[in-house]
Structure formats: C-alpha cells, structure tokens
Amino acid sequence: MEDLNAILAPGMLVRHPQYDEWGIGQVQSNIAAKITVNFPNEGKVVIDGTRIALIPVFDA
Asked: Is the pTM of this model over 0.85?
C-alpha cells in the first residue's frame, strides 16, 4: 500500500476508500507514510499510509 501512496504530493486530490462521505480531500503533506489530508466533510485527517491506500482523484 505504501508504494501507491508514495506518489501522493501536496495539492493532489484523493478519496478515502472506506469513507466516501468525507468527499474529495486535498493532500497537505506526505512524510514517512503519514499523509495529512484536508477533507471537506471531515476536516484535517492524518492517514497511516502503511495501512490505508488512498485513491487518487484525477477528474474532479
């Protein structure tokens, strides 16, 4: 999972695979598999990239 998350950079848009209701979030940082994402319906969340593979959004 970490390999897919490694491409995520600040500014990229993502979805959480288990919480679609959070909406499309924007990556704030990605440091040592800790990915901080600002979701419109949940706020700022720190994701453990070794446990959760975020879904990149390219057509938002």
From this structure: yes
